[in-house]
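Anyone up for a design puzzle?
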């Protein structure tokens, strides 16, 4: 994705958010204001991306984690609270999915074991008859 497309996407999103606020507060945003907000937002996102990369690198990792994102958000208590809440929800959801997979694979293993036991019983009955 090109830099221009990313900037255009940010500009579009900022425009939509400004429209929502304008309707809610019965006010207007000039095109210049929307452009300025878009530019500041894009630059802040670039800074965030660089900071996240540095946090991961400092921890000798090549992957950004939720802990890096929380560190980035530390100066905004409401944002940090929101990110922490969403992180915990994702962790809980991931645990539930892992448990479901374990149960499914455990049930499949149970069926395989019972099929193997059935085959062994059948074999032993066959050998008894001979």
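Challenge accepted. My sequence:
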């Amino acid at each position: 994705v090109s830099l221009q497309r990313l900037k255009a996407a940010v500009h579009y999103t900022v425009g939509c958010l400004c429209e929502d606020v304008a309707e809610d507060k019965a006010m207007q945003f000039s095109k210049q204001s929307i452009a300025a907000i878009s530019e500041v937002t894009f630059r802040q996102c670039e800074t965030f991306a660089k900071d996240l990369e540095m946090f991961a690198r400092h921890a000798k990792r090549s992957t950004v984690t939720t802990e890096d994102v929380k560190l980035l958000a530390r100066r905004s208590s409401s944002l940090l609270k929101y990110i922490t809440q969403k992180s915990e929800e994702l962790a809980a959801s991931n645990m539930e999915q892992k448990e479901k997979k374990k149960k499914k694979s455990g049930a499949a293993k149970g069926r395989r074991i019972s099929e193997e036991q059935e085959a062994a019983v059948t074999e032993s009955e066959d050998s008894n008859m001979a």
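A detail worth pointing out: The chain is about 85% helix and 0% strand.
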